[in-house]
Amino acid sequence: MRLLRLVLAFFMVSAAGYAAPINMMSNDIVVPGAGRVAGAVGSFWVTDLWVRSPGGGTVTLEFHAMDSASARAAATAVIPMTSSMVFLPDVLRNTFGLETGLGNIRVISTNPASATIRVYDEAGGGATFGMSFMGMPSSMAMGAFSGMTGGDRDSYRYMIAGLLPEPRARVNVMVVNTSASPISGTVEVLDADDGDPGSGPRSLRFSIQPYSSHQFVGVLENVQSRFPAGAGLQVRVQLDDGSTGSMMALATIMDNVSNDPYVVVGSMMDGSSSMMTGGMGPH
Which of 40, 62, 92, 146 has the most crowded CB, counting CB atoms within 10 A? Predict the structure, then answer.
C-alpha cells in the first residue's frame, strides 16, 4: 500500500476565538529528518526537497548531521532562486554530494522562504510514497521552562500522540536543536493517563549540538501499556530547566511489514492555556 502522509498543520487561536493559519515563511528554517540511508526491514530512504521563495534571491542550505560533535555543517550549498519554487530531488546526493547521511537541513534565505521534504523508501524500485512535512521557522521552536517565568510547565513540553505499539510498528523519536546553543533534556514514554506504562517508567536523555539532532530508535520496544491495545502510549519531550536553546520533536512510525510510514509532529498541549498550537511553544 502506497501512502503519502502530509502531516503538519499549525493553527493559532486569535483573541476573537477564530483559527488563523500561521505563516511558515521565514529567513531561517530547520527541516528535520533528511536522510539518504539504509533502514530496517531492507529499506533505503532518500529525500527530496522543495524550497519556495517568491521574493527570489538566494538560499543557503546547510546539512547538519545527526549526533554531530559540533555546530559546523557537514555540507553546504547555495541555490539561486531562479523561480518561486525550486525542486531538489535526492538532495543529499545531488545537491550536497553525500552518498549517505542523516540529519537536518537548515535553510537560510535572503528573502522569506518555506521548505518541504519528502522522505521515501527507494528499495525494490520504490516501496512507499513515503512521508512529507514542512520545515519549521527557527523562531517557532520550543524553549525551556524557567521558574522565573512563573508559568505552567506544560507550556514548555512537546507531547507526541498517535503512536502504534510494537511489534506491529516501530516508533522512532527525533529531537532537533533549532538554535545556535547546545541543548539537553529528556524524552519520556507515558501511558494513556499520563502515568508510567505498565512495564515501568522509560526516560531517555539527550544532549545535542547546535542545529544537530538525535534519534531514539524503537522507543516503544518492550513497553507494555496498562490499557487495551496499547495505542494510547505517548511521548513527552522537554528541555532541561533554564536551557538557552530551543528544539522541535517528531516521531516516525513505520509498519514492520509494508514499511509504510507516517509522521507525528510534537505539539504543545497545555490544557490551561487559551492557545493550543501544534509545534509552537514559548521561546
Answer: 92
